[in-house]
Input
Amino acid sequence: MSDAPREDEVLVIEDLQKVFTAPDGERTAVVDVPAFSLAAGEQVAIEGASGSGKTTFLHLIAGILEPDAGRILIDGENMAALAEAGRDRLRARSIGYVFQSFHLLQGYSALENVLLGMHFGPGPDRVRARGLLEQVGLGDRLDHRPRQLSVGQQQRVAVARAVANRPRLLLADEPTGNLDPTRASEALELLRAVSAEAGSALLLVSHDRGILERFGRVESFEGLRRAGEVSA
Output
C-alpha cells in the first residue's frame, strides 16, 4: 500500500484503533475508525459527547498517543509507524494544536509563548510572532504573562502559537469550551480566519451545537466508528 496521499489530502486515516483495557480485563475500543480524510484548506468539525473518545482521536492524529492498529498519513507520512522522536518531528513540522486548557507556559510572556512554539519548527521568527499576536488583537499585550490575560486573551495566544509554524493541519480540541457564548463565537471566527490565512486544514472537535452549526462539514464521531466487537 502506497503512503502517498490521495490528491490534495493532508490527512488520511485507515483502520485506526486505540483499545484501553480496564482493571477487570475488559477491552474497549475508544477509537475504531476505518476511514477518514481531510483535504488541504478544508475546515471540518467532529461532534460527540464528552468522554466519547474525540480527544483520544486527536491525540492519535498528533502522535501524542500511539495507536494499536491502523495508519495516520500526514502529507503521506505515516505518523503511526514512527518512533517517538519521529512523531515529535512530524508534529512540529506539520501540525498545530489548540488545546481546551491552552497549555500556555505561565512563566513566559505572550510573545515568548509563541516564540517557544517556533523552536520546534523552522526556528524562532520574532517578526512573525509579533505579527500573529497583532493579528489576533494582542499587539498591546506582547509582554503580558498568561495570568495577566483574560481567558479569551489566553485562547488567542494559543491560536497564534498553534499556527506560528504554518502547519499543514490544525487540530482544535473544544477550543471554545472555557468561553461564554459571545466570546466562543468570536474565538471560532478568529480560529477559522487564522487557519485560512496560514493555509492550514482545520479539524475541530466539539459538543457545542452553536459551534458545530458554523461548519459546512460536520461528522459525528459515533458515525466514524466501526460497529462490532473489539479485534484481538
Remarks:
- The first helix runs from residue 54 to 62.
- The two ends are 23 Å apart (CA to CA).
- The chain has one domain: 9-224.
